[in-house]
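Hi U.,

Before I forget, here's the chain from the pilot set. I'm dumping it here mostly so it's searchable later in email.
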Amino acid sequence: MRNAAAISPAPHARPAKAEPLRVALFSGNYNYVMDGPVRALNRLVAHLEARGHAALVFAPTTEKPAFDHEGELISVPSIALPGSRSEYRLGLGLPKAARRRLEEFAPTIVHVAAPDWLCLAAMNFARDRGVPAVASFHTRFDTYPRYYGMGWLEKHITSYMRYFYGRCARVYAPSQSMVDELRRDRIGRDIRLWARGVDHALFNPGRRDTVWRRSLGLSDEDIVVAFVGRIVREKGIDKFAEAVNEARAAGAGVRGLVVGDGPFRARFESMLPDAVFTGYLEGENLARAYASAEIFLNPSITETFGNVTLEAMASGLPCVCAAASGSRSLIDNGKTGILVEDVRNAKGFADALVTLARDPALRAQIAARGCEESAEFEWEAILDRLIEDYRDIVASAA
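Structure:
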């Protein structure tokens, strides 16, 4: 497998007194729902400021944010997405007050993180003022309709994404497999790798807590299979439930541990009556939950990277994942985890769970290799490389 250090270009030499960057960041979500992309964007803003650069964020907001965000955030008008994803909001563009603040900020580069109206307005602003615009690719939105009975929409959304990302000087994808996928589908003209990192001081095997496990009703003999993330259809919750139930029926002694919340939690709970649902966890509580399981299962095919998979690897868990996009770049099949090729049904996932549940030595071997591999993903080096790439783009546009 490839890793971020091997793929990302080495930083170019820079003058000691290079001018600080002024980065205007636009996103559909920055602080109202905690997810993988939001964690990455907040880390980026914090790192930019720590390195002496300026950052200004424009995004929809809500009355009750999920966490304290990094940097200065300018709220823009938005509406809730219809249906079961109403916790997310659609930015409606740049109103006059926000545009004035953007003009005062005078960005040297514009970074957009979602193919919505807000980010379209940002790219128009950048074009009119000769400022380079880049995009980070976080989600294959065009795959979502297949989970909600609207598969006919997929080709139209893909076509729009070609138009949107084709306007950007560069597109940053979070994994090499996603870089390859976007190139194949002609989404973006110049596609680069911006990998993700993991906080090894937080996520590590030492966080395991048997007392906490027992407090949840999990016995020392249970083989705990963890799910971490938003509880929505596109995360593969049906496949997770079916796989765990099939492995239980085969006598593998597994139990589900679900960490997260979302609009389909009640449905998930009904499919997994023997599982433990903790709700949303973060920080040390989340790290403890990972390390206190035996196996991590991620059946989602929509992940562009898989932050949760990397966190699980760092926490010492053997990971079973769908052989799709981000997971292919994180996992070396059979060595640092198990990739399931046939994702149309749950059998492959269930078979992998049974194999790992019945072989503690294999679990330990894969976990150790995965944990070692996760050490390659360090946030500081990854974000420094992105800043150097910003500088190259700004210099080329001057």
